[in-house]
Amino acid sequence: MLVIVGPTGVGKTEVSCLVAREIGGEIVSADSRQMYRGLDVGTDKPDKAVLKKAPHHLLDILDPSERFDAARFSAMARDCFVDIGARGKVPMLVGGSGLYVKAALFGIFPSPSKDENLRARLDTQEDENPGSLHERLRRVDPDRAAQLRPADRHRIVRALEFFELTGVRMSEALEKWVADGWPHLAVGLTRPRRELYRRIDLRVTQMFERGLLKEVRSLLDRGVPADSPGLDSIGYEEALTHLAGELSRDEMIALIQRNSRRYAKRQLTWFRRMPLSGWISLDDAPRAASKVVALWRHARA
Known about the structure:
Structural class: alpha/beta
Strand order of the largest sheet: 3-2-4-1-5-6
CATH architecture of the largest domain: 3-Layer(aba) Sandwich
Shape: globular
């Protein structure tokens, strides 16, 4: 199978659709937010025109209030790989959620069961001193802390819980755990940093032109709680803060752009630690797609 990864805004969708048409591929999305129904504009979910270019899987499979994790994704993605391969097509795992990509390819590393008492203590600490858990994680596991936003309480608590129960850093466990990986060729897409950031800033502006605030209001009007897992993501979190009157429109847009750029930087850090077969600089989508196809065909020869 073929794996295409890269940071947000780099152009994975266009390249992967071109590649899929060339090799008879079907795309399994590894985007942890495009799985949620109704989150279209803020996740830059492929529209109907794009979906006609190549079959996509694991889009719109969750309600925004539903919690999802890498273990469930791993099982569902692998079911897709089997189904796609059985029909004579090429499974293509495409996305920017590094943990989900790794889970689909290598499975989930063994971890201790949840300790509800420990989690409650950690939650209380964060309630009393916002940001303290991320700082605590930075001290005991700086690599994992660098991969998480301070607002990502759920994953921060899990990383601290893992360390408290095992005495091992979660980042080390993720790196050292070895399992039988799904046979694959993985490539990364990249752009010069300045160009990537320009594209990210432009995409955020275009999200508001396409109606991001209208989408968020619609979700709330339908009864989706503001603290739903699906809305705990860049774009939606800032939009909710704006709608609550705590940020101006310009402040909201600037904050989303900044947070998106920082997320792209974390993604690149994650993917550079993966055993990729190569990085392709994306200055022209058809040319980049041709390079991906050539790498894939060479690997299969």
